[in-house]
Design brief:
alpha/beta, D-Maltodextrin-Binding Protein, domain 2, 2 domains, six-stranded mixed sheet, three-stranded antiparallel sheet, 13 helices, 11 strands, signal
């Protein structure tokens, strides 16, 4: 989940630049995931593909994003299937000081993030940009606790995007009229939905893919707010290809793995390059997860049903991965 900031660039290992195989022969792999259940489907799908390629795969270890990158860098059989790049670039660079992390292809591409409000309020007051919240009368619309400031539902305190939001509140001159509300993100978003359903204005940070886009569909029940100018802490341009500027770069969720794993196993390397989910497929699973009673959603069963429905595509990934292994084996003979 897009919840960190964007700073340094990490060099990805390309399929045309693989070094000779190392002596590393790890066949039991260790997936890493965060406590965010919305990333479980992606992790389980990769795990299942690796098992079908003949690898033993342990149960995931649960870590923070920062810990995940450190662990992948230090452990030869480790991989993490939810690296939000370029958002996580600084975390990845900080956790990989020895250059031991390989970065795969765009597993879940076109992941947007930014600020949204309910469409009813946007239409009634002609709101399209976050800097309109400088107006105390506009900010008051989103003031639910009576302290005179608009409540912007933001990120959990340990997500770096919380720092980005605070930074942008200052850069856009909103400190006197807007405050970021932090806490458990999903619980906060449940409160957003309750307010919207009750006809109250709501203002929040979100990203795609995420279940909130099913509950408050963009252009139908919510709208993106643009920003007056790019204002990331590192001063990167956040203008999107279609010309809109939501204040954050477009992301891709990528698989990162220990470089030794990619070097020693060309089938794993190739799988991590080509496997890809559509954002709406992830959002659909996330929405089902959220709507199901806690503890009752079976992510593995959902993943298996997805494979059954998309078996030809899934098999094409496996076949291409196997071919990469065969080519490497032939070149060694």
């Amino acid at each position: 989940m897009p919840k960190q900031s964007h700073f340094l660039v990490v060099c990805a290992l390309s399929t045309t630049a693989l070094l000779p195989l190392s002596s590393f022969a790890q066949t039991t792999l260790q997936p890493i995931k965060t406590s965010l259940e919305e990333e479980s489907f992606q992790t389980e799908l990769v795990m299942h593909a690796l098992k079908e390629l003949g690898y033993e795969v342990n149960a995931p270890k649960i870590m923070t994003y920062a810990e995940a990158y450190q662990y992948v860098s230090a452990n030869s059989g480790a991989f993490f299937a939810a690296a939000w790049l370029p958002t996580h670039q600084e975390l990845l660079s900080s956790g990989d000081k020895d250059g031991q992390v390989y970065v795969g292809g765009s597993y879940v591409p076109q992941s947007a993030q930014g600020y949204q409000i309910d469409k009813a309020t946007a239409d009634k007051h002609k709101l399209s940009s976050i800097d309109q919240l400088k107006d105390p009368a506009i900010a008051k619309l989103f003031d639910h606790d009576g302290n005179g400031k608009a409540e912007l539902i933001g990120c959990q305190p340990d997500w770096v995007c919380s720092k980005v939001i605070d930074h942008q509140i200052k850069r856009y001159g909103l400190s006197d009229t807007v405050e970021q509300i932090q806490g458990d993100y999903n619980a906060l978003m449940d409160s957003v939905i309750d307010k919207q359903r009750a006809g109250k204005p709501v203002l929040y940070y979100t990203w795609t893919p995420h279940w909130i886009s099913y509950e408050l569909q963009p252009e139908k029940e919510s709208v993106w707010l643009e920003v007056p100018f790019s204002a990331l802490p590192e001063n990167k341009d956040t203008t999107l290809p279609h010309g809109k500027n939501y204040g954050f770069e477009m992301n891709s969720q990528r698989i990162v793995a220990n470089k030794e794993l990619a070097l020693a196993h060309p089938d794993v390397h190739r799988l991590f390059e080509i496997i890809q989910l559509k954002p709406n497929e992830v959002s659909a699973e996330n929405h089902l997860l959220h709507k199901t009673e806690k503890g009752q959603h079976n992510t593995v069963a959902y993943m298996q049903a997805w494979i059954t429905k998309n078996r030809a595509l899934f098999d094409s990934w496996l076949e291409e991965a196997k071919r990469a292994k065969q080519v490497e084996a032939s070149s060694d003979n």
